[in-house]
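Lab notebook: predicted structure, single chain.

Context: the supervisor wants predicted structures on file for every construct in the current expression panel, including those that have not yet been purified. This is the next one on the list. No modifications to the sequence; it matches the entry in the shared construct table.
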Amino acid sequence: MQLSRGQRIFRVVGGAIFALILIVLYAPFFIMGILSFAERTTAVFPPASFSWISYQKLFNPDDFSLFRIPGEPLVNYLRPIGLSLTLALLTSVIATTLALMAALAFRQRFPGRGMAFYGLLLGMVTPGIILGLGFRLFADQIGLPTGWRTTGLLTHIAWTMPFGFIVFLVFLNRFDNTIEEAARVLGASAWTTFRTVTLPVLAPGVLASLLFGFTLSFDEIQRSSLVLGRDQTLPIAIIGATTVRITPVLYALGSLIALVSFAFVALYLVFFERERRRFYGTTVVEDEEEEVVAAV
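Prediction complete. Output recorded below exactly as produced.
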């Protein structure tokens, strides 16, 4: 079908706006990657000279033989990275487990269902500084020591769990209950039905919830600043370093984090597409064959 002049103009303008959005979103990553190879300063773009020294200083923070920019903060980012990874992994696993249990519970009607729903979402809409302050005051009142294992982990779970809950509700909204009923009719127990039928279908949702929990926890700073005590996560370490001076080491760290993040998103998309074809591909093909037969 031939497009009208107005439709062609709309497509061109829409494509230009979409391209502009992509440039605004991803150009900073490209610039940051180039500046991470700057040897002496980040004030000039493109850098006058390129080297791997920023990455060497990032992974060898105690090597004082490497050239140091005057006023450069000597920060060991490896320890905060390890703490952030540990906290994010624990948060994502626990929050995903709780979110899945809550979403499965909401498949049934029970008294106070609406109140419980909004209560679960409260951690997502509460301002971060208020949530962190509330957890800190509560911990002080009951004598709970502040740290990443206690108040930090609890705060991150309260922040990330609602996102996983919403993800599972979306997947369960499209869930075909008849496959569970068929498994029970064939004699499968409730646990066997969940393990062999329900959970495999929800596998993309589980992975999405894990990614949500990990990313939100790894990047969290508003809530973490009040509940971690002496423990220091990577965002807090970065904020402390930027108050002194921004150096190419920070750009090297940001570039590596961006690359790993993009790799995780790509893996999720591949997994999601594979699972979608596995569970829905056969049904789609059968439906198309029935439509062809009916048309004939």
